[in-house]
Amino acid sequence: MPPCRFISTSRSSNIAGTIDTIMLTGADAIETSFFSNLNRSHHLVERKSMDWNSYFALRGTRRLYERVFMVPSTFLGLLGGGYYFAHQDFDPTISIFGMDQVIVYGLGTIVAGLAGLALGPVAGNVIFRSVHGNARPLLDKMDREFFKRIVLNRANPTGNPLAHPIPDFYGEKIKSVHDYRAWLRKQREYRRKTMYYV
């Protein structure tokens, strides 16, 4: 049986409905939809939970940001250090710390490049957190939970020989749930070997 359609025979009701539709598509409708979307996204951020696969994916993206920004920051450090030391007065008769000025300026340029290399991950992390601002509270929460699990499940570092350190002490090589399970197995094997020498 085909669905029934109820068609109004009143012309005034159709006109009123058209006027109401036009009014809703105006500024009031835009304002209503904006605030409803804002509230919806706010509740999603508050109530949304993150699974471990999503966490490891975001963690990998954060590492990618940190590694990518290491390159320009290193070059900026080298260029900045080189520019600064190239504009210093050069006198071959004067030594600095008992060394030639060229050597000291070269070492200073290298140190500036190393400083840029160290600041690269910091800049990458800041930009990552600004881009993924909505997921930042959940990511921080999952970071705390992840490192708590690492501390609880890794082998006891007390008395471990330097020749055989604990594998992946901070869990930095864990990139997925599969890697985490493999890390747990390695910790159990290391614990068994240190306790029973097997």
From TrEMBL:
The subunit field of the Swiss-Prot or TrEMBL record says: Component of the PAM complex.
Write down the species.
Linnemannia schmuckeri
The record ties this protein, via InterPro entries, to: Pam17
Q: Which residues cross the membrane?
A: 68-86, 102-128
Gene Ontology biological process: protein import into mitochondrial matrix
Q: Where in the cell is it found?
A: Mitochondrion inner membrane
Family assignment from sequence similarity: Belongs to the PAM17 family.
Q: Name one GO cellular component term.
A: PAM complex, Tim23 associated import motor
Top-rank taxon, per record: Eukaryota
Function in brief: Component of the PAM complex, a complex required for the translocation of transit peptide-containing proteins from the inner membrane into the mitochondrial matrix in an ATP-dependent manner.
A Pfam short name: Pam17
- Keyword Iron-sulfur assigned to the entry: answer is no
Matches recorded under PANTHER family:
PRESEQUENCE TRANSLOCATED-ASSOCIATED MOTOR SUBUNIT PAM17, MITOCHONDRIAL
> What's the protein name?
Presequence translocated-associated motor subunit PAM17
Mode of membrane association: Multi-pass membrane protein
Task: Give the UniProt keywords, A-Z.
Answer: Membrane, Mitochondrion, Mitochondrion inner membrane, Protein transport, Transit peptide, Translocation, Transmembrane, Transmembrane helix, Transport
